[in-house]
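Quick one from the shared queue. A colleague (R.T.) flagged Proline--tRNA ligase as missing a structural entry in our internal table.

Convert sequence to structure tokens.
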Amino acid sequence: MKQSKMLIPTLREMPSDAQVISHALLVRAGYVRQVSAGIYAYLPLANRVLEKFKNIMREEFEAIGAVELLAPALLTADLWKESGRYETYGADLYKLKNRDSSDFILGPTHEETMTALVRNAITSYKKLPLNIYQIQPKYRDEKRPRYGLLRGREFIMKDGYSFHANYESLDETYLDYKQAYENIFTRAGLDFKGIIGDGGAMGGKDSQEFMAITPDRTDLSQWLILDKSIADISEIPDFVIKDIKQELSNWLIAGEDTIAYSDGSDYAANLEMASTEFVKPTAYTEHLELTKVATPDVKTIEEVSAFLDVPTEQTIKTLVYNADGEIVVVLLRGDDELNEVKLTNHLGADFVEPATEEETIKVFGATFGSLGPVGLPEDVKVIADRVVETIVNVTVGANEDGFHYQNANLDRDFKVTEFVDLRTAKEGEPAPDGGGHLKFARGIEIGHIFKLGTRYSESMGANVLDENGKAKPIIMGSYGIGVSRMLSAILEQFARINVEKTFKGDYKFSWSMNFPKGLAPFDVHVIPVNVKDETAVALSAEIVETLTKSGLQVLEDDRAERVGVKFADSDLIGLPVRVTVGKKAADRIVEVKIRATGDTLEVNVDDLAETLAILNQ
């Protein structure tokens, strides 16, 4: 492919509105262009990357018996009203009417549509299981689109759905998808983790997220590609290293979630779902006398701790929530933070939010800052984190403004309805499986698989007759991959800073793409230095023909540009191999540069195809 025929609008400078490096490079290198807020056009280079990733997915899904189809993106709202999500999905749902004033939506996901298709086509368990998927744009009206392709209003998604007569069949397909996802992301060259996830608005119970790990900014060896004139990072002057570190710090660390993983086992979870090892102590501590003390103008745990000179871990934090209209009291140790996802999942509630001050006064007779579990009405549900059961002689609010109790003890002074894991895990704590300690990392969600069960089939009447002729709801699974955001995830891991030493002895650095071989838009970038040199142009054409016949995809920079412009654009585009046809063209000698390492070598054109085959092994 000749570069002069491609639409690759590179920029000299980073775009001013970009906050993460993947967004900046995708725009600067001419891969994408924003059409409106949160909506992007995928230009030829980006489209080639996406198609290669789609083909990887198709190969892995075919291996597990998944069949591709294509459903409409414009959906009747009637199906979403059947499932109940039309009103509960929230403001992100694009709602519109046609000329007849019928309600429609732009599909953010397709559980309802696929359920309806199967409901109308399959009536017997004998035709199950069924495993289908599609790859298409999705639409969500994000309030604040940001980070380029990571949080947009239109995005490309692979969404798959499986339908089963029993849970054993669902379990098998769920594991098939888990393995297929691991294969896909491995083939894409990503550093990723499969973690325990939260099903959220999707419904269902079991789920697993797949997260691309955001690289460590402190390890420069992950980021730098050194020119051949620089043997080692230690050669680079300190002031240059300082500038490079500053450049890295200019970009936000991409990733919606914090991942908690064990340094001694395979345990990994979204921080919202992460737990820690819990051992209930057996040692007995004497229960001291309950004492009421004045704490004027003292409200926060930190203020209480300082005023009474007690450790924060010897206090109890009392929180009040409204869960589907029911007031729930939540107790945590003073130095812990509530994990609202854990609370919501435990309650099985659709709607959970902090209670208002008016609601709180009705239960406690006091305002925030003086609340506690002592003396609560018996009909109030009190849920405590399991750590609360392990502490004695604690300080709590007295349910009277300006007062607290000291030496409050469970059962003697207050009751708890149930103990569950509600706290947010902390880095360095023991992993729940006892294998090592928790470490934290930022991650970009690239895939998510769910066991939906009968969440949609029951509400939408999707039933099949079982072996006894009895109608039963179809059991479902749902499996998604963020296709367009893969571009950003890849570049967050594979963006690199090229460092070179000029002939004057100065050091300069610049950002570049560094796509893994399997996803790069082309395999080789052939650059004739001077397009007026007939020998070089002819040799370039020969190289393109030879490499193409050997199975490689080649981009030839045939533009009448200065060599500096060509090299700068080549670095931005980020193809794995650059072949420069220059001064030694008459001798059939070219320079080959390996982008991932920065290494260069001179090769005779007659040996080029074989050399590249060896390098690609």
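The CA atoms of residues 383 and 556 lie 66 Å apart.
The mean pLDDT is 93.
Added to the table.
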